[in-house]
Amino acid sequence: MGKPRLLIIGCGDVGMRLLPLLRARFRIFALTSQPARCAELREAGAIPIVANLDNAASLAKLAGLAPYCVHLAPPRSEGASDIRTQNLTAILPDKSRLVYISTTGVYGDCGGASFDETRTVRPQNARAVRRVAAEQALRAWAKRSYSNLSILRVPGIYAADRLPIERLQKGTPALADADDVYTNHIHADDLAKLIMLALFRAKPQRVYHAVDDSDLKMAAYFDLVADAFQLPRPPRLPRYELAQQVSPMLLSFMSESRRMQNQRVKRELGMRFQYPTVTQGVDAALDSVLQHHRFKDNN
């Protein structure tokens, strides 16, 4: 009784990691379009609400429900705008506090440059264009509703169960070093922590890079995981050869190079990473897998 209300939109893996960090402070509602997930959400400490962001009428029950919101839902996979975010802003109360999980893809290819949050966005694929549209829609909503908006731009999320093991097992090639791109990372648990900190500490209408301290090229990340799990390293190919062997979507991920600075989350949010680098996160993932196998062997 008396706890402020928080609404989580898109309560998947990261949302489930966020729930234990917030349920003592908030009465949490979780939107789901899948009735089969209600029991799981209740067990994790949330009150499930069945509705669909693609159906504006189904969201009426959420109108004015919670002054705090975490928006984790991605846009749909077509179009130039984000209808889901537009539908959401129609039912949020004035003077809300919202944390939106966007993507580092809004910057496009930066040629491996290192930069902070002041860099202008330059989306270069349809997915990133929709994310920029979502950010713009939320900024307009925050301005007219006197609300506090925080945007976390998130890179590749990894965890023990979110590693490229299947890709390595298939032998999918990676780029040769001369053509390779710099990528950014965040452990799923650290992202959940960052979302919690943003709810309480973020400045209004502020963008934050939700990235760790790693400075890795993409193939080096694959090699790191392969070595840890005793898998073959992926073959390296020049870009023109790799383009003939991978899907256009995968190639697009391997065509944008950027190194994003994270001083703002440390300085303004007080973030202390549990896994400051991918090396530490992969080591912890390996330990977790080994402990799981030992437990199974002993039982």
Describe the model.
Residues 94-204 form the NAD-dependent epimerase/dehydratase domain. GO terms for molecular function: aldehyde dehydrogenase (NAD+) activity. InterPro entries: Epimerase_deHydtase (IPR001509), NAD(P)-bd_dom_sf (IPR036291), NAD(P)-dependent_oxidoreduct (IPR051783). This is SDR family oxidoreductase. It comes from Undibacterium jejuense. By secondary structure, the chain is of the alpha/beta class. It has a domain at 5-159 and 185-214 and 259-277: NAD(P)-binding Rossmann-like Domain (Rossmann fold). Helix content is 37%, strand content 18%. The protein is built from 11 helices and 15 strands. It has helices at residues 13-22, 38-43, 83-89, 126-145, 165-170, 188-201, 218-228, 239-242, 248-253, 263-269, 278-298; strands spanning 5-9, 27-32, 47-50, 68-71, 97-103, 114-115, 148-154, 156-158, 174-175, 182-183, 185-187, 206-209, 216-217, 236-237, 259-260. It has a 7-stranded parallel β-sheet, with helices on both faces. A two-stranded parallel sheet has the order 6-15. Strands 8-11 form a two-stranded parallel ribbon. α3 links the parallel β4 (68-71) and β5. α1 (13-22) crosses α6. The longest helix has 21 residues, at 278-298. 39% of the residues are buried. The mean pLDDT is 95.
